């Protein structure tokens, strides 16, 4: 899968339409050398290979997109609840994992101990 971004980038670059010619200019003359003709053949071959790869990869990409969409739909209620409990994420340091596997979120500015807490304490059940 690490080659997929490279393949997609090449496909994007090579699939761009050629610059349009206006009707007044004559068509390009025939290639002057075998080198130019060879480059044209290489370009066509590359396009054919990339089209084949895209035809192979496209169904899997669609399947992955559907899987991701269903996973996100399942996670949405829990993520909304977590967001409601946390509030503004910018008030917290990045999560830390303790040696026992617990994950904690530390506030950047601790709550004043004199203020009563408005939320519940303890683990969040997702």
Q: What is the strand and helix layout of this fold?
A:
Layout: H1 4-14, H2 34-86, E1 96-97, E2 103-104
Antiparallel strand pairs: 1-2
Describe what is shown at a glance:
With 126 residues, the protein is mostly helical. The protein has helices spanning 4-14, 34-86; strands spanning 96-97, 103-104. The chain has a two-stranded antiparallel ribbon with strand order 1-2.
What features would you describe in this structure?
The chain starts with a helix and ends in a 22-residue tail after the last strand. The protein has a domain at 37-112. With 126 residues, the chain is mainly alpha-helical. It has a two-stranded antiparallel ribbon. α1 packs across α2 (34-86). The radius of gyration is 28 Å and the shape is elongated. The protein contains two helices and two strands.
